[in-house]
C-alpha cells in the first residue's frame, strides 16, 4: 500500500504545476501540499489503478489535494458505507473538493438522495453546499422524479438557503433549483418565485 502511494505521489510530481498550486492557495485552499494538477490529468492517473477501498481510504487521509481527489475516483461504491460518507464530508473544507467528490463518487452511491437531503438540512455550511451540489447531480441522473414530500422538502431548504447571507450556499441552492426547473414541464409556483427573485 505504501509503495503504491509513493508511486502515485511520484506521478503527481511529474505533472506538478506551481502556477496553479499558488493560485489555489491564494483562493484559500488549505492543504499540507498542493501539486496544482488539473482534473483531466488526475483522472488519467486514476485510470491506471483498479478501484480499491483500502487505497482510496489511505489516499483520503493524506492532507494533499490531489490524493483526496484521486481517492474519490478509486473508491468502490459497494464498500463506501453511509457512515464513511459522513466522515469524508467532515473533511471537505472547500467547494472544489466538494464538487469533485460529488461528481466522482457521491452521485453514484445507492443512498445518495438520503445523504443529500440530510446534508442540506445541516447547520454546517459545507454540508449544505455539498448536499445541494449532490442534488444537482442527481437531477441530472433522474430528472425531476421526486415524490411530493421530497419536492416540498427540497424547495423549503432551497428557499432557506436563498435567504442566507452565505454566497456559496446560495449559489449551490440556486444551481440545484435551476437544474430542477429545467427537468420539470411546469415548475411549481414556489420554484418559479425563487428563480424569479434573482433575475
How would you portray this structure in words?
The structure is a single chain. The protein is an all-alpha fold and 199 residues long. The protein folds into two domains: 1-79, no CATH class; 93-199, no CATH class. It contains twelve helices and no strands. Helix 3 (39-46) crosses helix 5 and helix 4 packs antiparallel against helix 5 (65-74). The longest helix has 18 residues, at 125-142. It is globular and about 55 Å long. The model has no long low-confidence stretch (mean pLDDT 91).
- End-to-end Cα distance, whole Å, is 52 Å
Write down the domain tally. 2
User: How would you describe the oligomerization state of the chains in this entry?
Assistant: single chain
> How would a crystallographer describe the biggest sheet?
none
Looking at the structure, what is the overall shape? Answer: globular
